[in-house]
Write a structure and sequence with these properties.
It is a single chain. By secondary structure, the chain is of the alpha+beta class. It folds into 2 domains: 67 residues, no CATH class; 74 residues. It is 24% helix and 40% strand. The strands form 2 sheets. It has a 4-stranded antiparallel β-sheet, with no helix packed on it. It has a 3-stranded antiparallel β-sheet with strand order 6-5-7, with no helix packed on it. A hairpin with a 4-residue loop joins β5 and β6. α1 crosses α3 and α2 packs antiparallel against α3. The N and C termini lie far apart (86 Å). The protein binds zinc ion (ZN) (2 copies). The site of one zinc ion (ZN) has 8 residues, from loops.
C-alpha cells in the first residue's frame, strides 16, 4: 500500500540582517516559506499550495510580512529633523528651538540648517514677541496672542 498525503511545512528560504521595527535596531532574520506539500510515505515530494512567506526576528521572535525587509530606518539626520519638527509643532518658537539646539552642542550654522529644514517656509509670527512658529501652532507660546502669517 502506498501512503500519500499532504502536510504543511515552513522552509527557511534565507537569512540575514534587517531592521526590526519591534527591536528598533539591526537583528538577524530568517525568511520562511509556508506551504502545503504532497507527501509520499510522509516525505514531502512537491509543493501543492503556497500560503505565503514571513520573516522572523532573531531578537524578539516577532513575525512580519516579507516587506519588512525593505524598510529603511530613518538616518540620524532624519531622526533629528523629525524630533525638531515635533518640538516646533508642540508650540516651541522657532527661535527657541534653535537656541536649544545650539545649547545642546550643535554648531550655529548647523542649527540654522536643521531648523530651516524642520520648520520650512510656512511660518506664523507673533509681532508682539518677535517670535515665529510653524503653521500648526494656534497661538504664541510666550504671550498667548494670535499669530499672523508672513
Ligand atoms: Zn525584533
Ligand atoms: Zn507673543
Amino acid at each position: 500500500m502506498i501512503i500519500w498525503g499532504s502536510r504543511g511545512r515552513e522552509i527557511e528560504q534565507r537569512s540575514g540582517q534587517f531592521h526590526c521595527p519591534q527591536c528598533d535596531n539591526e537583528q538577524e532574520y530568517r525568511l520562511y516559506r509556508v506551504a502545503t506539500y504532497f507527501t509520499l510515505y510522509f516525505i514531502p515530494l512537491f509543493e501543492t499550495e503556497h500560503h505565503g512567506n514571513y520573516v522572523k526576528c532573531g531578537g524578539c521572535r516577532g513575525q512580519y510580512k516579507p516587506e519588512v525587509l525593505d524598510y529603511k530606518p530613518p538616518s540620524a539626520a532624519e531622526r533629528m529633523i523629525l524630533s525638531v519638527r515635533a518640538d516646533l509643532e508642540s508650540g516651541t518658537p522657532v527661535e527657541m528651538t534653535r537656541t536649544k539646539l545650539v545649547n545642546a552642542g550643535l554648531q550655529e550654522n548647523t542649527a540654522d540648517e536643521v531648523v530651516a529644514l524642520a520648520a520650512g517656509d510656512d511660518r506664523l509670527r507673533c509681532a508682539a514677541c518677535n517670535l515665529s512658529f510653524v503653521r500648526s501652532v494656534p497661538r504664541c507660546a510666550a504671550c498667548g496672542g494670535g499669530l499672523s502669517g508672513g
